[in-house]
Amino acid sequence: MRHALALSPHLDDAAFSCGGTLARLAGAGWTLRVATAFTASVPEPRGFALACQLDKGLGPEVDYMALRRAEDAAAAAALGAEAVWMSFREAPHRGYESAPALFAGPRPEDAIADALAPALADLLATLRPDLILAPQAIGGHVDHIQLVLALDRLAPTVPVLWWRDFPYVARGAAPREPHRDRMAGLDGVDVALTEGESRAKLRSCGAYASQLGFQFGGPDGLDRALSASGGIEGFRADPAHSATCRNWLKALGT
Fold first, then answer.
1. CA-to-CA distance for 77 and 81, rounded, in angstroms?
2. Which residues, 6 or more positions from 104, have their beta carbon under 8 angstroms from its beta carbon?
3. HEC states along 136-148?
C-alpha cells in the first residue's frame, strides 16, 4: 500500500488546489493524509487577525481555527483522507497586519520556516510517504511561500507534486509567482479529473463553509470557479520523478 501526504499551508488549500487528485489516490487504495501547517488557535485575537474572522460573520467569541479544523476534518473525509493539524500560527498572528502585507513577501523577522522545517522533517520521518503534494505558492501568500521554503530545506528524495494554488491561479492572467525560478526547471504534470473525482472535490471544498462567501461569493460561486478550471489540476515535478508521477496517476485514473 502506498502513502501520499499533502502539505497544505491553510485549512482548505489542498482541497481547493488538488482535491480531485487526492480523491483519485484515495480511491485507488492509497493511504492519504492532508497535513496543514498553520492551524493553531490563538486566544483573544486582535487587530487584523480578529478582522479575518469578523469579515466572515464570526464574532470575537468564536474559536475561528477550531471551527476551521472541524471543517477540515469533514473535507478530508470527503476525499477519503485523514486530516493532520500542525500547531503553527497563521501570518496574521505573526505580525502581518493587513491583507496587502500577506502578499508582500516574508517579513525579515518572520522566521517561521526555521521552526516549520524540522517539524516537517519529523512528519516525513514518521509517515514515510511515497508521494508528497505541496503548493507552488502561486499568488504569493506568505504562508504558502514559507511552506515551500521549509520543504525545500529538506530536499525530499521521494517525488513531490507541486500544485498550482487555487483560487489564486484563477484571479487574473499573471498572478504572483515568487518561486517562479524554483519551479521553472520542473516538468508539468496535468491530471484530468473524472466526473466522480470532480464531485468528490466539490464536496470536499464545500465543507469549508466559513470560507465560501469570502472566497467565491457562496457555494454556487465555488461550483462555477471549479467548473471554469475545466476539470484539470496542474502540477510541477522534478524531471527525475515526473514520469513516475504521470504513470501512477494515469493508471489510477483508468
1. 5
2. 142
3. CCCCCCHHHHHHH
Percent above pLDDT 70 for the chain: 99
Q: Reading across the β-sheet that carries 187-192, which strands appear in turn? A: 82-85, 31-36, 3-8, 131-135, 160-163, 232-237, 187-192
Judge contact between 127 and 33, C-beta under 8 A: yes
Residue 29 C-beta-side C-alpha neighbours within 13 Å: 5
Q: How far is CA 157 from CA 5, 56, 72, 111, in A?
A: 14, 40, 28, 25
Go through the chain and tell me how many residues it has. Answer: 254
The set of cell numbers assigned to 236 is: 510541477
Closest CA to 92 of 41, 146, 52: 52
Q: Decide: 253 and 198 in contact? Cβ < 8 Å.
A: no
In this model, does residue 254 exceed pLDDT 70? no
CA angle (217 as vertex; 58, 81 as ends), nearest 5: 75
